[in-house]
Specification:
225 residues, globular, DNA-binding, 8 strands, eight-stranded mixed beta sheet, alpha+beta, archaeoglobus fulgidus dsm 4304 fold, 26% helix
Length: 225
DNA sequence: GCGACAG
DNA sequence: ATCTTGTCGC
């Protein structure tokens, strides 16, 4: 699929990165319902001590969740992990893998925050701008925001707010497991982001596409060492 | 100044 | 994220 190269990833200082996030935040569209979803994609990365980043992107059918495409790749780590700047560490490799997709997905799930970010530009939102299709940020823990613990039943959720503004949802995808932190990335609304996350949460706490991408990159990393 | 802090 | 075995609970 085509990737919009909105800006360069080369030689960026933290100040450059922050400036990019502030500028791009204005282009994010938090709206859309995502009907007629036939293909869902997701990606994930793994790292090794020698500063190598491994990545995997998977494309599955909905609602069967059959794997149609699987792409893996690796590169040298180019940016450290700094809370709030995860994009600059993970997006380059992820985008190069999404670019290999022959089929354009109708929905993309990203491992990280969407707009639930200090500058409303988490990894999910940032990648959503480069892909130009509905993207959801699915994080396993909180970056910013306050919330009430959702009830233990599957499907129960509560709002994630920051400065009295709704920035995402805290969702229990299975009974008695730690909740997930969902927020719109780009071109999708809160309700749709929540609904699709639950529709994709079948066997595990993590949505099917993301889980498959995670397993794939874990195995790929093992095979490369 | 102090604590928090996606992966 | 990574390292790392067994083990407690639904």
């Amino acid at each position: 699929m085509e990737i919009r190269k909105i800006h360069s990833w080369e030689n960026l200082t933290l100040a450059d990165a922050k400036s990019i996030q502030n500028n791009l935040a204005r282009d994010i569209i938090v709206d859309g319902v995502s009907k007629n979803v036939n293909y869902i994609a997701a990606g994930d990365l793994a790292f090794s001590k020698d500063s190598t980043a491994f990545g995997a992107v998977v494309l599955m059918t909905y609602p069967e969740f059959e794997i149609v495409e699987l792409h893996t790749g690796k590169e040298r780590v180019r940016f450290p992990y700094i809370p709030g700047y995860l994009t600059f560490r993970e997006a380059p490799l992820l985008l190069s893998l999404f670019e290999k997709l022959q089929i354009v997905p109708d929905l993309v799930m990203v491992d990280g925050q969407g707009i639930a970010h200090p500058r409303k530009m988490g990894l999910g939102a940032h990648i959503g701008l480069f892909l130009g299709i509905p993207t959801i940020g699915v994080a396993k823990s909180r970056l910013i925001g306050k919330y009430d613990e959702p009830k233990i039943e599957k499907g129960s959720w509560s709002w994630l707010t920051h400065k009295s503004e709704k920035i995402g949802m805290v969702v229990r995808t299975r009974k008695n497991v730690k909740p997930l932190f969902i927020s719109p990335g780009n071109l999708i609304g809160f309700e749709s982001a929540l609904n699709w996350t639950l529709k994709c949460s079948i066997k595990y706490r993590i949505p099917e596409p993301t889980k498959i991408a995670h397993n794939t990159v874990t195995n790929f990393k093992k095979s490369q060492i």
